[in-house]
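Sat 14:20. Reprocessing the chain from the morning session after the first attempt stalled halfway. Input below, unchanged.
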Amino acid sequence: MAKRRRLKASIKRRSKKSALVVITIIIAIIINIYIGSLIILKGPSQAFSNLVISTMMETRRGKALIRLFFSDSEIDTILAKNNVIQSNEITNYTEDDFEIDESLLDKIDIIDISGSTYKGKMMIIYDPSRINLAVNLNFDDANNVQGHYVEEYVEWLDGIGGINAGGFEDPGGKGDGSIPQGLVIYNGEIIHGSVDSYDSVIGFNAHNRLVVGQMTGGQALEYGLVNAVTFGPPLIINYEPQPITGTGGGLNPRTAIGQREDGAVLLLVIDGRQTTSLGATYADIISIMQEYGAMNAANLDGGHSTCMVYEGQIINNVVSLYGERAVPTAWVVK
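Finished this time. Tokens:
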């Protein structure tokens, strides 16, 4: 019995020592992570710190981490120095129709896009009248549980391809993609937002011209927008790239839309947060859109929402391990 008691006491002492060692190791790891984060986020390279911060502030978990080290006012100051400068300029108003060569009416190009930190896809649709807006029309239904996938929107409209469009309400980072963010115009009517709401608007008028810029719902209707969503920032307006400061939004998955002078619509997705593609900055997206001749272009919802569908398949690498995200709106190519 005495031997058993001594054995139990010995095991108990060793267990306590082992637990203490484990706890010490865990604390050391936490301290090292904290110190490492401080080094990355607060110096010595301010440019690198800004890149990391602006990148992480476009992710759900990243926002929470950054707020452990910076106050809201500090974060706002950093983001203001590393973003696209918003202007009051809007795409020039015009009621001219595009003259599309009949040989191009059915033409669609899919192009691989790559840069030093990113890979992605560009879809060029030569006939802009093929672009349609698909919307979750049940966003105000109390029984509605989430939005829909881009694949579903494409299938419902009997389309050939599409990308995600506007943003969605995301309270506490728990949004389900059901409720659109800001203004949504569908078939010439405001179905979300109001005539007084002021947002970064991206849409098409009855002449299939892409219109981008900061405007109210009333202005959007005056511009004749038939289908439009809210997101941003606008990247190119009337051939003029919008000014960018610092890192320009960091490296992230991106979705963007643009239009050339001949009417061709440019749909762009960039993969991100992956070993093969870290992501793109706003400056990268502007450069790509300029390379392909965009006279107007704007940033759409990115991150986990970034998705391009063509011929029934997702052709980019979505960042989420669970596949594409449900969204409230999508631009569909018929």
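Residues 99 and 262 are 8 Å apart (CA to CA).
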